Amino acid sequence: MMARKFWVGVITFAIGIALHWAPTLKPHNSMVPKSVPDISYETADPGTLRASILEAKARGEHTVETIVTACGWELPGLRTALSRDSVVLAELVGKKTYPDTWGLHTWYKFKIKETLVDHSPPRIPSSYFVSAPSDMLPIAADEFLLQEANGRMDIDGVTVIQHSNGAWYLEDQTYLLFLWIDPSTRTAIRSGTDPLGVFLVDHDGNISSYIDESYPLKTALAKRFKNSVNNMREALKK
Length: 238
Known about the structure:
The chain is an alpha+beta fold. It has helices at residues 2-20, 49-58, 78-84, 216-225, 229-237; strands at 22-25, 63-68, 86-99, 104-117, 143-148, 151-155, 158-164, 174-181, 187-190, 198-201, 207-209. Strands 3-4-5-9-8 form a 5-stranded mixed β-barrel. It has a 4-stranded mixed β-sheet with strand order 1-2-7-6.
């Protein structure tokens, strides 16, 4: 059942990208000319990142902003999550953004500070764990890489900014993460399409959710553990 739910999530994720990926071009410190200069630019397939960049350059713009919305994979409640997901305290130690045909994606490298719950990932095809880029290797035994469909990158004189319903992680910030980690490749899949399993942890061990709105896992952490890593750690030992 878990594999089936994940398969549906992946298919819906792909459909969500195809249907909802909508580039929005905005001028940045420049005036849009009344007419496009008669200049020959190389062509690109409609909807691709390259096409968006060429259109921006043709208009004399210097910024392209795109939005990717994925949908379909819900995060379970606390009891199910603790019985299925790995839960770690991790700090972001590096990141790098890459372009692809349709947009940007960013690989985030985390160092695990503490593992609160350790589970092997479900029996799903290994292809679900995307191969890490070679220039971010090696990955230490206490590290993992996590990919998000967002990022910022300068390409051919145009600043491309891609937003998504994933998470933007900050360096030197500690996170409480619900995820699946492939032990052989040290790449991870965040649990849930939206970052409902992403929590920030301050220096005193207080937990706050990445998403402001209310949802079951957030409510359960507050109710059962009082949004405290120490309380969560002690309760999980019992």
